[in-house]
Design goal:
The complex is a heterodimer of chains A (485) and B (95). Chain A has 485 residues and is α+β, with helices and mostly antiparallel strands. Chain A is built from 15 helices and 17 strands. Chain A has three domains: 4-300, no CATH class; 308-418, no CATH class; 426-483, Arc Repressor Mutant, subunit A (Orthogonal Bundle). Chain A has helices at 62-74, 172-189, 229-248, 294-301, 308-319, 323-330, 333-343, 348-366, 377-388, 394-407, 411-418, 426-439, 441-448, 454-465, 472-483; strands at residues 4-6, 11-23, 60-61, 82-83, 85-89, 99-103, 112-117, 123-135, 139-141, 148-152, 159-165, 201-211, 221-226, 257-261, 266-269, 282-283, 290-291. The longest helix of chain A is centred in the middle third of the chain and has 20 residues, at 229-248. The model of chain A has no long low-confidence stretch (mean pLDDT 92). Chain B is of the alpha+beta class. Chain B has a domain at 5-41. In chain B, β2 (83-84) and β3 (87-91) form a beta hairpin. The two termini of chain B are 38 Å apart. The chains are: A alpha+beta (485), B alpha+beta (95).
């Protein structure tokens, strides 16, 4: 899928790299025993380490290390058995230490890859440059007081994984696909919940453009802290067009940090902090290097779940699903589990159809996730069974499905209660056919006179007579016989 | 190695240390002196020594993932010049 911007003089290509901050799923913070729960009272989850009190020493949380290694393995990345924590020095009101403990030249995870499956069927491999562990900062709130900024340090010291991609993406769509895929992998691994609206996953986008065919990269701008995938895509597109306009009017792009304003869909320069990027990194003297052996990595590797790419391949080979259907079903782990429960001992294609075409649509409309579905996998499976054993027709099944959605009951009970069982006995169907023919002698005449297409009309009428319950095969067979001249 | 005045002003700014203009030149001289001492260390042959970040031959201590702290907002805010409803209050910093 190519995304090119046609300018006045050139056709431009956009180059995108993404930095994602993913909050590590853990009970306690990276270097302190304070909790990490979302939405607690201000400053109620703060230890003296997180508050930057003098004399306090950081002690690393073993789960955060394990989660970083697990994520690295999920990204098929190189794991560095020895990494070093460094101080990134800058002044800001929500950074009480005056530095962030991060990793600089020796991160815990090195190069990896993420494979994107684009809607046009093309696969794109995006390089991961690195993943490192670092502390989150506190939160500044500017709108609670006319002249003050309020600071909440609950988030201060929470473990983040900064995951940096190579500048391998070439369209807003690819950036969106990258974020969705990364989020999917993190959720499968259980290392980050991926909730962008709660700030558990945040994205900075590095954007530059160049004339199609030009080698090398031009100056990039970094768009900070965009909080939804849709906004990331919009921000990239706006920013790329801005670069093109600047170049084509003879200007130059200067490297800067920009902010996306979702209200008017524009990016704007953040008041340029002079020398802000001079972080004067140096190894944190409070922390020894982080070292583990190959056995440690192997033990974590042994506990990795089946990841989306492998699951997708298995769904294609084991169930005979199309690549598209398999791709849709594996995005969320919960969906894949639901599907496999429905498909167990049943026709997998029918199961995939019901889940994708019917259930997804319904859940979308109701605005709920699959884990809150009123229809359990077990009940959806039973519904398919009722079609397979001819208890109900496919058409009635759609009605039963709607009732299941509303009432949450099992399909057996609904079919029983509403008398929806399919009519397969010859008698009642013949009666209904007789009735329709008696009421419409003109149509019978027309049909017998050679207007074959009327058969469809008769099927519809008889179906109506039987409340949609006639077995379609049986109905067709009997109707043909009765209508024959 | 000698630091010029501009570099000293920049370092002071980054460290948020206010240095009077008359103190810049003397400070540059002092800092340059310290850099000279450090430069002497370069004379030692370290080609056979692994780069290291510390002198302690110890392993990093790992902690269990358990909540053992928090819940003392009052103590956290005790030294703050200003606080409101559990938040620190600072002069408005709007980007």
């Amino acid at each position: 899928m190519t995304f090119l911007i046609k300018g006045e003089t050139e056709t431009w290509e956009v180059v995108i790299g993404l930095e994602v901050h993913a909050q590590v799923t853990s009970e306690a913070k990276l270097f302190s025993g304070a909790p990490t729960y979302f939405g607690a009272d201000p400053n109620s989850q703060v230890s003296f380490v997180d508050a930057g009190m003098p004399g306090m020493l950081p002690v690393i949380n073993e789960i955060c290390v394990e989660q970083a290694v697990r994520t690295g393995l999920g990204l098929k990345a190189r794991i560095n058995n020895r990494s070093v924590f460094s101080r990134k020095n800058y002044f800001y009101a929500d950074l009480p230490q005056g530095y962030q403990i991060s990793q600089f030249d020796l991160p815990i995870v090195g190069k990896g890859t993420i494979v994107l499956d684009m809607p046009d069927g093309v696969s794109r491999e995006i390089g991961i440059e690195r993943l490192h562990l670092e502390q989150d900062a506190g939160k500044s709130i500017h709108d609670l007081h006319p002249s003050k900024t309020f600071i909440d340090l609950n988030r201060s010291g929470v473990a983040l994984m900064e995951i940096v991609s190579d500048p391998d993406m070439r369209s807003p769509e690819e950036a969106g696909a990258y974020l969705r895929k990364l989020r999917s992998i993190l959720r499968y691994l259980g290392t980050c919940n991926g909730n962008m609206d709660e700030g558990s996953m945040r994205c900075d986008a590095n954007v530059s453009v160049r004339p199609q065919g030009e080698e090398g990269l031009r100056t990039r701008c970094e768009i900070k802290n965009v909080n939804s995938i849709r906004f990331v895509m919009q921000a990239i597109e706006y920013e790329a067009r801005r670069h093109v306009d600047v170049y084509e009017s003879g200007g130059e792009i200067s490297q800067e940090t920009r902010q996306y304003d979702s209200n008017n869909g524009e990016t704007r320069s953040m008041r340029s902090k002079e020398m802000a990027h001079d972080y004067r990194y140096f190894p944190d003297p409070d922390l020894l290097p982080l070292v583990f052996d190959d056995d440690y990595v192997a033990r974590i590797k042994a506990t990795l779940p089946e990841l989306p790419d492998e699951k997708r391949e298995r769904f294609i080979s084991e169930y005979g699903l199309t690549a598209y259907d398999a791709g849709v079903l594996v995005v969320e782990r919960e969906t894949s589990v639901y599907f496999e429960d429905v498909a167990k001992d049943r026709d997998p294609k029918a199961a995939a159809n019901w889940v994708i075409s019917n259930l997804f649509g319904a859940l979308n409309k109701m605005g709920i996730s699959i884990t809150d579905s009123p229809i359990t996998a077990d009940n959806l499976g039973k519904l398919i069974d009722l079609i397979t054993d001819n208890t109900i027709s496919g058409r009635i099944a759609k009605d039963v499905f709607e009732i299941m959605l509303e009432e949450g009951k099992g399909p057996d009970a609904i079919v029983e209660e509403k008398g929806l069982k399919q009519i397969t006995d010859t008698g009642p169907i013949e009666d209904a056919i007789g009735q329709v023919m008696a009421d419409n002698p003109g149509k019978v005449e027309e049909y017998r006179g050679g207007k074959d297409k009327l058969i469809g009309w008769f099927v519809g009428q008889v179906m109506k007579q039987t409340g949609g319950k006639a077995n379609p095969g049986k109905l067709n067979e009997l109707l043909q016989k009765k209508l024959a001249p | 190695m000698s630091l010029d005045d501009a570099t000293v002003r920049k370092i002071a700014h980054l460290a948020r240390i206010s240095v009077a203009e008359k103190d810049i030149a003397p400070l540059a001289k002092e800092l340059s002196g310290i850099m000279d001492w450090i430069e002497q260390l370069q004379e030692v042959d370290t080609s056979a020594v692994e780069p290291m970040t510390g002198g302690a031959d110890m392993m990093l201590n790992w902690r269990k993932d358990a909540v053992t702290d928090g819940g003392h907002t009052d103590k956290v805010l005790a030294n703050a010049p200003e606080s409101h409803e559990g938040f620190f209050g600072v002069p408005k910093v709007i980007e």
